[in-house]
Amino acid sequence: MGWAGAIAGFSAGAIMILLGHVAPLLGANRLAKDLDVLRLFGRKYSRRESHIVGMIIHLILYAFFGIVYGVAVVQGVFDGVQPFPLGIYLALITIVMGGVIMPLEGHGLFGVKEDHWFVVDLLLMNAGWLILFAAIFRIWL
Prior knowledge:
- It contains 4 helices and 2 strands.
- It is mostly helical.
- A two-stranded antiparallel ribbon has the order 1-2.
């Protein structure tokens, strides 16, 4: 189930990234902002390099979150893809993303350095990912 979770998490993350890039072309406002220029190991990276690294990091994170959910199902912590366990998992990944990952990326706690609605965006994007993840993960159950 760990590999199934990884594949489902990665796939759902890729779909979310694709939707984030296609939505502005269809008239929606840009949902995901291109924020800072990446600095890593003393080197400044271009916007394109920063964007690609950001996508890779998010895909790795969502594959990891998929693995964790898959292992939790195998261990009996969660009972498949039922709404209540998924809601709990949504809260957990939102807390991890907003409380750990975003401050490490320089966005502040839950992205408040960017704007005050960033936490709502984070919750909605994680909910979208989780719905896609559950639909893909259900294939292996």
